[in-house]
Write a structure and sequence with these properties.
This protein is an alpha/beta fold. It has 2 domains: 182 residues, Metal-dependent hydrolases (TIM Barrel, Alpha-Beta Barrel); 65 residues, no CATH class. It is built from 9 helices and 7 strands, in the order E-H-E-H-E-E-H-H-H-H-H-E-E-H-E-H. Strand 3 and strand 4 form a beta hairpin. Helix 5 crosses helix 6. The longest helix is centred in the middle third of the chain and has 29 residues. 44% of the residues are buried.
Amino acid sequence: MKVDFHVHTNYSDGVFSVEEVIKKAEERNVKILAITDHDNIDAFDEAKKIKTEIKLIAGVELTTYHLEKPVHILGYFKNNDSSSAELRIFLQNMQEQREQRIKKMIKNLKTIFNIKIEYNDIIKNALGVVGRPHLAKAISDKYHITVNQAFDLYISNDSPVFVPTVGLDTKDGIDLLLRNNAIPVLAHPSLIFAGAPEDFISMGIQGIEVFHPHNSHKQRKVYRKLAIQNNFFITGGTDFHGDFHNGQHVGISNLSKDQINIILKQINLD
């Protein structure tokens, strides 16, 4: 059975709308789909109004920091209840901070490289969270270069244009999810560049994304063993964005029926 516990829409840095993502999942015969936009939970409010046979799951991918390096934590909401006022206010504040960050980078682009981008050029491609992918897309459209070139030439971490994000400590992020009806899962552990997956066990994670396009076969075996040893559930997804990111298609077949049922039971959707 095809499932996907990690996809993005244009409410964060995905290319496609909620309706388009669901349609693509239907075309791929995906039976279970978790919408996990970066630091935004508004997409599910739209998704649940769409008529589909797919079992939809409300989720989020929270950006946190450990040892000053990003660590992404997936959160899956029990009973699909993402109505927490605390979490929504927190994410709104984070969005406002991101908007100020992008405005500073726009100013830096003009000052340093004479690259002239208007904020309105960026938000036309963003329904919720505004980030560097939207800025790169605006540069790409105006200056006729690829999105990857826009990143590498002008807004990479090493660029003088770059402005760091306001950091949420990983333990605080996990606690935030736990307080607000969500099961925290360590996302794409092979992309963690500060510490090791073991470092997050005591912080309260309850699952590991064993299956992800960036996890090698050898790494999957290590993560699976770690999950079993700590009684965590095993999950996986494509991290679908619909562009130059990971897989170009929605849906994986790696998870067994038992593993899927454990996830659904944990979030009260079995």
